[in-house]
Design a protein that fits this description.
The structure is a homotetramer of 228-residue chains. With 228 residues, chain A is α+β, with helices and mostly antiparallel strands. Chain A has helices at residues 15-22, 29-38, 109-116, 178-195, 198-203, and strands spanning 2-9, 46-47, 50-53, 57-64, 67-70, 76-80, 83-93, 96-97, 103-107, 123-129, 140-148, 154-163, 168-177. Chain A contains five helices and 13 strands. Residues 1-41 and 207-223 of chain A have low confidence and may be disordered. Chains A and C meet through β1, α1, α2, β2 and β4 of A and β6, α3, β10, α4 and α5 of C. Chains A, B, C, D: Pfam families: Whirly.
């Protein structure tokens, strides 16, 4: 098998410049991202994504941290898992994308697990209902489907947002090459322990005990298996 | 193959809220976790888990750090490996779980290795005896079995605790989907070097040597292979 | 299958000493690397690579960080992805290499994804045109091809630089064993989330909220999926 | 396939206690490790390993950091790769091991790559000659062979040290289960980027640029591909 990626310019890696040159409209992706981040009180926060631009749509993938709540003991515990936000936005011309028409889909940890274990010939589909368990249940339904392109060459991603109230259905879809999906899979695998907060639980090391004193037990430990 | 996860609400990711709304009884999972952590003097410690709720039981998985002891040289060395604690607790109604009836099983590094290398059609079983090498050996026996659901769709986990003294046998079991097991496998693979303390051994970097002075050998190095 | 690596001396791991002893010419690899780094204002920066020396050429692989730009909110965002720089340089004698004749090829994140998902019998080829979108488009064309050696024993890497203006074509190639490619694949997989900036987005943790105050929302979170 | 690990006691995870109780002789593993570390000026350094105890021998695996040297620019560069040290020591009774008869084998990055890509039915063998390129070349030869146990159940590790001067040949070998080899593979994969220094090159982040000033180029970047 031979896979080609023809004459990608070095400047294509200058994401901003490319978009500055090629995009039009009053709301650019660049601007949108700045606005997006500015909505939050996030001094010191860093934002990173992986974005794939295709003929009819683009897809951006961004990890989102879990949140912790304080325990009375002074420690803290994850009270809400993080996620990986997928943002789809349509092309409105050659290499022009309208970020204001974006569709969002937040992957839960288990949905991330589903994607990273997807075999070359397998499909998966996720359904989200923002109003579930409320009186508006079923008014808006989002689904994300991932289906193989065939010949182990990648996947086709499709997001459908059905609004029963407004009687509208919006669809955005794009092909993801095997190489691009490998980047997504690798980034998702990296992100997964982080959106569960395991990196913080595992790297928040206590200072070493001093040689003079017997260390107090400062962590839940395997012996608690036997403490019942 | 088509895998579906139907209309998961966004609020399902708000673990606390879901449980606040749905759980009953004087001892909630929320409360139990707080109590669990409060037992330890753990100011500054962070806790994270991955929890799967099923019809008859739930399973929570939590990484536990290794402990270090000081060396006379001033450095420190792992004196007890960490583990990954599995906590099973039974359902006592629809989406209600009784955390007070929990069963614990602490996976050793090698047991973690067994789980993450488990093939789609393979089984494994671990046996723990809390009283081994004591006069009470054999009084309580715990076993954890992991068996395939078939068609590469996940595994069935079963914990059995046999108490020969009290003449009781307690069993808790639940199915784990392929996506959920992938989350577990990814989180376990991430945790493994950490519960062995390798991350601390590998990232506890010395300051760079100054250009003026020849660096002293401050680490055990490959040449010690030849020093006999 | 039996793979042998015959009597590698321990001193071969002393990269500098080996080269000091064996290399000649006024411009050594050692010197070149120092010069390379000295070109940058990089006090405090650390440089690491993975280098494979073969009969006709050597290949060095070095990760390059993304750059961030400040947002008005006070946070920052990746404005240029990092990459993994491949440096090929020709042998000019037995274990002598001329670093001044080096050829560079910077792998983008998606090209990294292509390499790490490459099957044992698969090939891939990347094309770069430094002058794309300028009036000099097509004057210089670089291509990197990766083709299997056969029998799952590794790959053959070939870089070709075609200069239409100078009417020159330069080629450098070398075989990479399965073990060496595994090092490259493992290092590339490790590097990928970092060159996208995901490690910085995921580990730049906020301080824990205090128990007294309800935490403000300080991060983009999954609920924003529903905010349209 | 069914894999069993029968009644492992929880106390087996208390490595020190087990050895305190079971080992004899004036030089215990515990003591040896302390001595080993005390040889170095290593205040603040942390040591971690993964050790497998079998009937005729034990094997301990320990990661070793690379060393850096200062550049004139103020940055630093790896001047010697790290490694993963394998330490074999013989059993001298039931669960008694003589650490003074240890044999060492330091795996280079490429040898680590060979091990982590080893297929279930594949073998590999490494040869080290501590005196290579000296007048003593060939006097001592070390070899490490890894051969499959069959049925995807693990590997047999054998170290042979042939001393032509002393006319001695020492051999130590032990079986490694699939689960144990998975721990080794996972720990080696984690260690590999660290022994190459890539983690330090990739996480030694510069402070974010200020919004007012255009960021200076402070890193080697992909554009240098085009600078020739």
């Amino acid at each position: 098998m031979q896979r080609l990626s023809r004459f990608v310019p070095s400047s294509s890696r200058r994401v901003t410049d490319l978009k500055d040159a090629l995009w039009s409209g009053s709301l650019t992706f660049q601007h949108a991202l700045s606005t997006f981040a500015a909505d939050e009180n996030t001094s010191g926060r860093k934002f990173a994504s992986y974005t794939v631009f295709k003929g009819k749509a683009a897809l951006s993938m961004q990890p989102i941290l879990p949140s912790f709540s304080k325990l009375e003991s002074g420690g803290s515990r994850v009270n809400k898992n993080g996620s990986v936000m997928l943002t789809f936005f349509p092309a409105v011309g050659q290499r022009k994308y309208d970020y204001s028409k974006k569709q969002l889909f937040a992957l839960s940890p288990t949905e991330v697990g589903s994607l990273i274990s997807l075999g070359p010939a397998e499909s998966c589909e996720f359904f989200h209902d923002p109003s579930m368990k409320s009186s508006h249940e079923g008014q808006v339904k989002k689904s994300l489907s991932v289906t193989p392109l065939g010949n182990d060459s990648g996947y086709f991603l499709n997001i459908t947002v059905l609004n029963n109230l407004q009687k509208t259905t919006e669809r955005l879809s794009l092909p993801i090459s095997k190489a691009e999906f490998t980047v997504m899979r690798t980034a998702l695998s990296f992100a997964l322990p982080h959106i569960l907060g395991w990196d913080q639980a595992l790297t928040n090391h206590q200072p070493s005990p001093s040689p003079a004193s017997k260390p107090r037990v400062e962590r839940p430990h395997p012996d608690s298996e036997w403490e019942r």
